[in-house]
Amino acid sequence: MRVRPNPLPWIYRWRTNLIHVPLMTVITVACGSLSLLVSLVDKKGNAQHRIARFWAQGCIWASGSKLRVVGEKNLRKHPVAVYASNHTSYMDTPVIFAALPFQFRILARKVLWPIPFIGWYLNRSKQIPIDTNNPRATLSSLGAGAKELRSGMALFVFPEGGRTADGGLRPFLSGAAYLAIRAQVPLVPMALSGVYELLPIHTRHFYPGELRLTIGEPIKTAGMTLRQTDELTAQLRTAIQSLCPARGAEGVRLAGVEAEGTKV
Asked: What is the residue-wise DSSP string for the chain?
């Protein structure tokens, strides 16, 4: 992996403020409003999911980036599964919605629910809020997730619980493995790359490039018990780590003069 310093960071700042953010705001408001209206009659959520995918694809386009999905065949091997990915950026969610062709529920941090349009959509589309600061609320959220899986709805989880600060994997929480074992459905590892470089945690500016979502082989959980939750969590982390592109010895650094991106 090679990192090239960006000699003109001010161009990215101005382009973000004048182009990327205004476009994303218009797309979010338009799709959020339409989704709210559709939710009044769309009881199954199919139309809302199509709108969410259009919103996600629009946000990626507005960011000036292109998305590539690798291993898409692994998305269709099981009708119901828990999908889990590393969490690198605020742009991860649009990438996930743009890439997954079927309806699913997402376990998302409760703090997103008060945000206009985004929170309204999450609530009306029956996504599942999770409060990691409240163990009792977390257990309730996991119970709701297991119920969705048993009803035939796929589920998506960020097992790190929050965004990475440096692009590397953080320690995993056990929620994804717990849900997969409890519902006896496969656990599908996925890895995002290029999204951290697009919008790192410590900047508000976009650095467009190629975004990639790599889907690994599903991990079977049939016959596993909840006592094996930690074992499955470790297996999931190893699988996601193997799907991530190798990082340089010092990683990708975006400090002072930000990096333009990576060439893989």
From this structure: -EEEE-S-HHHHHHHIIIIIHHHHHHHHHHHHHHHHHHHTT-SS-HHHHHHHHHHHHHHHHHTT-EEEEE-GGGGSS-SS-EEEE----TTHHHHHHHH--S-EEEEEEGGGTTSTTHHHHHHHTT-EEE-TT-HHHHHHHHHHHHHHHHTT-EEEE-TTSS--SSSSPPPPPSHHHHHHHHHT--EEEEEEESHHHHS-TT-SS----EEEEEE-PPBP-TT--GGGHHHHHHHHHHHHHHHSPPPPTT----SSS-EEEEE-
